[in-house]
Amino acid sequence: MNNKVLDCRQVGFESSLIRLPADVTEAQLLHRIDQLNRDKNIDGFIVQVPLPKHIDEDKIILAIDPLKDVDGFSPASVGRMCLGMPTFVSATPNGIMELLARYQVDTVGKHCVVVGRSNIVGTPMSILMSRNSNPGNATVTLVHSRTPNMAEICRSADILIVAIGKPNFINESMVKEGAVVIDVGITRVEDSSRASGFRLVGDVEFEAVKNKCSFITPVPGGVGPMTRAALLLNTLKAQAMHHQAD
Ligand code: NAP
Q1: From ligand 1's centre to the CA of 102, what distance in Å?
Q2: N or C terminus of the chain with fewer C-beta within 10 Å?
């Protein structure tokens, strides 16, 4: 069974998994989204990306009712997040903020380096860490594939958040002594010693870096479960909002 369906079951949410064929047309998918938007029995839904190439992902994200957008990908949700208004914050950055709060990581005035600028992880993460909030109030540098002096910038980070999808990219020499390291990356790497034939590898060389930093998230078992929990939190928020509006 799909992990998200299992997560919902575990916390007592009703959920459905709608599987559409890979050759579904954009119009058919938009029609399905319209039905979900109108269905009063549904508090929130996500459209699993990536989508087949013939479908315009932006068009699909725009079609989702922002009040049911528990992934937090819609322009309305992202805009509200940028302005510090209540909204659905996308699950991975939301989960990381929760993790920093739960472990009481001091972020105020710290230098936070975010590696990777995707719409769903790096960019919202950099905005959240720079906001006047707790966690937050950090001085943020966002780096990407066109950034020169990557290693030097990473070495200056008190908090290093890496989301690029390049296994073991960040090595010991790129991490400051005592830094907090959040590894978002998940890549399947072939491993014939496993029954599955693969293992999941993060963007950070965990074994080498763990002795140098003060906190580090493992892969798997770090940011992944926080992302799943944050999606459930967004769904709970959606339910509460709709309940209030009734
Ligand atoms: P994405 O959309 O592929 O974006 C990758 C980003 O990394 C881009 O901004 C890219 O820069 C940057 N990048 C690539 N190579 C780089 C390099 N050598 N130096 C500096 N920056 C580099 O990735 P994503 O969706 O954010 O996902 C990133 C990773 O996190 C993936 O492994 C994904 O599976 C994982 N992930 C995990 C979770 C979770 O729940 N744990 C959730 C989401 C994603 P440019 O913009 O310049 O191309």
Answers
A1: 25
A2: C
